[in-house]
Amino acid sequence: MSVLDRFATGASSTGARATWLARGAWLLAAAEVLVAVRNHLSDRLSERDRRRLVEIVRTSKGRPSNLDDRERRELRELLSKVEPAELAKTVAQSGLGGRLRRGRR
User: Fold this and answer.
1) Distance between the two ends of the chain, CA-based, in angstroms?
2) What pTM was computed for the model?
3) I want to staple 97 with a disulfide (CB 3.0 to 4.6 A). Which of 34, 78, 87, 92 is the partner?
4) What are the residues whose beta carbons fall under 8 Å from the beta carbon of 13, sequence distance 6 or more?
C-alpha cells in the first residue's frame, strides 16, 4: 500500500509544482514587461520629463478633467515623446505579449 500512497502523493505534488511554476512564469513575464516599459520610458524621456509626467498624473488623479489646458497640452507632448505604438510593439515582443497572443487562439 505504501507504493500506492507515494504514487498518489507524488502526482498531487507534481500538480502543485506545475501550478506554482505556471504562476511563476506569469510573474516572470509580467516583470519582463515592466522592465521593457521602464527601459522604453528611460530611453525616450529625460529625468525631468519623467518627473513632470508623474506629477501631472498625480495632480489629475487619473482624470483629464482635473487638468487645465496647459497641463493637458504638456501631457500630450510628453506622451508623444513616449511613442505609444513603439511601446506596444516592445510589449508584444516580450514574454507576456507572446503568452497573450497564444492564449487567444
Assistant:
1) 44
2) 0.58
3) 92
4) none
